[in-house]
Structures are given as structure tokens and as C-alpha cells.
Amino acid sequence: AQQTIYRCLGGETLETLKAKVFSREIVDHALDLARMTNSELAKVLSALDIEPQDCVNLADTLDLDNNGEIQVAELVMGINRMRGPARRSDIVTVDLMMRSMQSRIAELWVHHKKKRSRSRSQC
């Protein structure tokens, strides 16, 4: 199934794609075509239990480092994570990650305020 996804995205084999990256636009375009037609990619996504509505803006989700490009590893990992319905553990994981991020942002803000007040007092 993953071999078919690679062919649909670039017309190449798995071996030639290992070192390549896709732009978000190419991935979005391929997924748009899959949603609008009964293409081979649409059939593969269905076989992988990935809902068509979950593919809207999927390239943004797959681009883990937010550089506008999707590496093959990001593509494969992201598609594997998209399979099946959301589970309670998925929701709890996201909740815990958000709490951790909020705590880190709060710590950064306090550090920034202290640093700013020190630099003002030195002037």
C-alpha cells in the first residue's frame, strides 16, 4: 500500500524516493485528486482506513518541521498515524502535550520578563 502512495505522489519507486522530499503543494494536490476521484491513491487511503475528510490540509500536518517540505519518512509516519478512528489515548496524549507546552511558554514568559526588567534597571 505504501508503495502505491509513493507512485501516486511522484511516479517513482520506494528506493528512489528515500532521499527525496515533496512540497506541501504536491502532497495537497495528490490528496485533492484522491478525494475527488476514485483514483488508486483514494483506494489505498480507504484500505488504510483513512477518511477523505481527514486528508484536508494533511500536508500541513505531515510537515513535522514546518519547512514547507515533506520528507518520505514524515509522509509514511504521518499516514500511519492517521489510520483508524481517534482513540481516547490519542486525545489524552494531545491534552498532556498541550499542558506541557503551556507550562513551558509560561516559564519562558517569566524568564523574558525578568530579563527585560534587569536590562531596564541597568539603563
What does this protein look like?
69% of the residues lie in helices and 5% in strands. It has 123 residues and is mainly α. It starts with a helix and ends with a helix.
Explain the layout of strands and helices.
Blueprint (H helix, E strand, L loop, with lengths): L1 H9 L3 H4 L3 E3 H13 L3 H8 L10 H5 L6 E3 H11 L5 H35 L1
Antiparallel strand pairs: 1-2
Helix pairs in contact: 1-4, 3-4
Which percent bin holds the helix content? 55-70%
**How are helices and strands ordered from N to C?**
HHEHHHEHH
CA radius of gyration is 20 Å
> What distance lies between the first and last C-alpha atoms, to the nearest angstrom?
64 Å
Q: Note the beta-strand portion.
A: under 5%
Biggest β-sheet, characterized?
2 strands, antiparallel
Sheet/helix structural class: mainly alpha
What is the count of DSSP helices, taking H or I runs of 4+ residues?
A: 7
Tell the overall outline: elongated
Question: Average pLDDT across residues?
Answer: 80
What oligomeric assembly is this protein in?
single chain
Low-confidence stretches: none
Number of strands: 2
Order of strands across the main sheet: 1-2
Keywords:
two-stranded antiparallel ribbon; 7 helices; elongated; mainly alpha; 123 residues; 69% helix
Can you summarize this structure?
By secondary structure, this protein is mostly helical. The protein has helices at 2-10, 14-17, 24-36, 40-47, 58-62, 72-82, 88-122; strands spanning 21-23, 69-71.
